[in-house]
Q: What sequence folds into this?
């Protein structure tokens, strides 16, 4: 169970429950590019990424991928299988050598029935993913490619602490493009337009001209997570409330 302590959801378990998880879980190593589970396959587990990175995606008949989510280490996926029988809503494949903890769904369900705090964490995680997927559908419909890329960069800026003007892209540009619903060519054109606003992206390194360079594409979902947010003076406040995103050169 020692390796499972990196997952915050297990901190509220009793010693007996932790031992139950340890006894019934299994650790599997997957090499880069290896499929963990296929789209539509029956899944009776929750999957916890100990090390590595996992892509959840759907592919069309031409082999084009639609990336739904990239799961980093310390995170987990297919948590809905703990609530009801689930056929995998997406295929899962590793992006690098990855260690996966697989915990039977019925074990998770049993523990949730006896530990309210644990159940709330799992349910909250599922709600966050549902919210993110809903936002993604809205973004695909309402935002331009420039706004989508800018918003992605703002999320990464905040995720990295929101203080340094330099941060690193979490994965390959081609994968980011797919996740944002655009071709690699469109993504490259957007990067060129961002360069005109002073935002530099060389290889996987992003450099902003100043800490508030992306405020114009902020919204209420990000606003309160930003370390620069001020209810009285936040430069993104008007853009967030009006959704016009006309405050910066990346709108």
A:
């Amino acid at each position: 169970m020692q390796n499972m302590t990196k997952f915050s959801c297990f901190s509220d378990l009793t010693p007996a429950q932790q031992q139950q998880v340890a006894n019934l879980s299994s650790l599997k190593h997957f090499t880069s590019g290896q499929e963990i589970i296929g789209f539509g396959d029956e899944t009776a587990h929750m999957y916890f990424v100990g090390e590595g990175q996992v892509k959840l995606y759907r592919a069309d008949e031409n082999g084009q991928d639609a990336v739904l989510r990239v799961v980093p280490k310390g995170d987990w996926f297919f948590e809905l299988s703990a609530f009801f029988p689930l056929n995998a809503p997406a295929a899962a494949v590793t992006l690098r050598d990855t260690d996966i903890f697989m915990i039977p769904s019925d074990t998770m369900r049993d523990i949730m029935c006896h530990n309210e705090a644990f159940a709330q964490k799992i349910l909250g995680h599922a709600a966050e993913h549902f919210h993110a997927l809903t936002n993604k559908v809205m973004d695909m419909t309402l935002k331009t490619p420039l706004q989508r890329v800018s918003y992605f960069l703002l999320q990464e800026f905040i995720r990295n602490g929101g203080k340094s003007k330099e941060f690193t892209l979490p994965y390959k540009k081609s994968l980011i493009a797919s996740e944002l619903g655009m071709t690699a060519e469109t993504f490259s054109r957007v990067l060129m337009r961002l360069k005109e606003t002073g935002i530099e992206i060389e290889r996987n390194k992003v450099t902003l001209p100043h800490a508030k360079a992306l405020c114009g594409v902020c919204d209420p979902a990000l606003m309160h997570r930003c370390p620069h947010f001020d209810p009285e003076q936040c430069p993104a406040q008007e853009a967030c409330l009006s959704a016009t995103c006309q405050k910066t050169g990346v709108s």
Observations:
- The two ends are 47 Å apart (CA to CA).
- The first helix runs from residue 15 to 24.
- The helical segments are 15-24, 105-114, 116-142, 145-159, 173-179, 184-196, 220-223, 237-242.
